[in-house]
UniProtKB/TrEMBL annotation:
InterPro entries: ABC2_TM, ABC2_TM_bact-type. The keyword Ribosomal protein does not apply. It is found in: Cell inner membrane; Cell membrane. The chain crosses the membrane at residues 51-71, 77-98, 119-147, 153-179, 186-206, 247-265. Its main location: membrane. Pfam families: ABC2_membrane. It comes from Fibrella forsythiae. Residues 45-268 form the ABC transmembrane type-2 domain. Belongs to the ABC-2 integral membrane protein family. It comes from the Bacteria. Keywords: Cell inner membrane, Cell membrane, Membrane, Transmembrane, Transmembrane helix, Transport. This is Transport permease protein. The keyword Cell inner membrane applies. It is a multi-pass membrane protein.
Amino acid sequence: MRIHEVTIQAGRPERYYWRDLWQSRELLYILSVRDISVRYKQTALGASWSLIRPLATMLVMAFVFSVVAKLRPDPGVPYSLMVLAGITIWTFFSNAFTQISSSITSNANLVTKVYFPRLLMPLSAVAVSLVDFLIALFLFVVIAIVYKFVPDWHILLMPLFVALALLAAFAFGLFFAVINVRFRDVAQLIPFLVQVGFYACPIAYSSAQVSGTWYEKYYIMNPMVGIIDGFRWSLLGGRTHLNPQSLVYSVAISLVCLLLSVIFFRKRESTFVDDI
């Protein structure tokens, strides 16, 4: 184990904070492993829940929206695969967003007892979401094999959309993590935002149904629209709808929000102990 010295001093230059953050990467690993091990501790099905949840959601949505509501997927794409691709990336984003938002308050015992760069806690919260995502992605592969659907070169771009989803989750989650320390009402607000976002994003339907409407210009300002469409487009061989302009909005909004959230986090970080 590496040992390094951390100097706690008021008014230190910002570069020392980021140096301390890098030097604490082993602590980041420890916190991440702890979160993953605690996630399914004393559960009967363990990591199988990461398969059961998206599979059950896909089956219900396929029946409700395809059979009952008669929604149609993009041409040449099975509806179940289109929905499952959307569920996979949305679940990754929403889980990461939720866990990042509560990362400071859920680690209150650490915050009040020892010093370390508090940004480690939101960073470590992402690990569980990433493991769940990989398991859900395996489910998608299995269902794709059942449908005899073979991806092409577009799948090489999938990591870019996963990284963009992670960027968006961190950008928005970091802001709410700070607010949640002071106002615990945020813990009640987050599930509501996730629930509303599920229906506001193209998961059960294709964005092609919005194309050409008067509200499309507002619809594509939702940063998750471009991310979900892009992820689906990469998994399904470029056969689904993807508006390049929505990707521009996704990248721009996520980067701006991330910058503002980091600034806000650093400004309020010294007050966490008092507020908790």
